[in-house]
Amino acid sequence: MPRGWVRQGDNFIEICGEYGADARHLPQELTALAAATQRIKSSADPVSVLRAAAFYHLRFQRIHPLVEGNGRVGRLILAAQLQGALDLPVLDLLHGLKDWEADYNRVFASRESAVRFELLLDLLVRITGILLPPEATALPERLDPVHPQKRLPKQKGPRIAPRDAAVAKMIQAAHAAPAPSRCHVVCFLLRCAPSG
């Protein structure tokens, strides 16, 4: 399946050793995510918006609704949420995430949801310059999907790995090519994501 497509049916996923949401329940997962984000964003103040955007981003990554491109789409939604509320240019926010890429990757290296939330908030504070009170770093709700996958299917046959650099380069080029449907999925997710 091309990148940018929504997972369907028995399309199972494992992210950083954890299961994503059951693909059969993605509409309910995204609806629950939007409702939880609205509860966290109790007002338009920058602290509330920052907490809600961080929560949305982390839970979106745990749900993992797309076949591929969840990180890029998630970062775009994160930047759009912050831009709408904090009047910061989207490109500046995206460049900030790229400049702090090692710290961003460290967020997802942690196994603890509360630590992930705190690390992402810390990164967003450095990018936006917003100061947070200590109590704002507490995880507001669980990050796990409402409908987690029950199991991963057993692999049929051996895994095929690239045998040489030329094959690896062709695979990398195929992954870099834009998928025609990605624009539609991103636009849909941006419309569904609570903004500031």
Helices and strands, with pairings:
Elements (H helix, E strand, L loop, with lengths): L13 E2 L2 E2 L6 H15 L5 H18 L6 H17 L3 H10 L1 H9 L3 H16 L36 H12 L5 H11 L4
- Mean pLDDT metric: 78
Which range best describes the helical content: under 10%, 10-25%, 25-40%, 40-55%, 55-70% or over 70%? Answer: 55-70%
Q: How much strand?
A: under 5%
Q: Let me know the largest β-sheet.
A: 2 strands, antiparallel
Number of strands: 2
Helix/strand order:
EEHHHHHHHH
C-alpha termini separation: 33 Å
Supply Rg. Answer: 17 Å
Work out the oligomeric state of the chains in this entry.
single chain
List the total number of helices.
8
Pairing-aware structural class of the strands and helices?
mainly alpha
What strand order characterises the main sheet? 1-2
**Weakly predicted, low-confidence segments:** 156-164, 177-184
Query: Any idea what the shape is?
Result: globular
Report on this structure.
This protein has 196 residues and is mostly helical. Helices cover 55% and strands 2% of the residues. It is built from 8 helices and 2 strands. It has helices at residues 26-40, 46-63, 70-86, 90-99, 101-109, 113-128, 165-176, 182-192, and strands spanning 14-15, 18-19. A two-stranded antiparallel ribbon has the order 1-2. Strand 1 (14-15) and strand 2 (18-19) form a beta hairpin. Helix 2 (46-63) runs antiparallel to helix 3. The longest helix is centred in the first third of the chain and has 18 residues, at 46-63. It is globular and about 40 Å long. The two termini are 33 Å apart. The model is unreliable at 156-164 and 177-184 (pLDDT under 50).
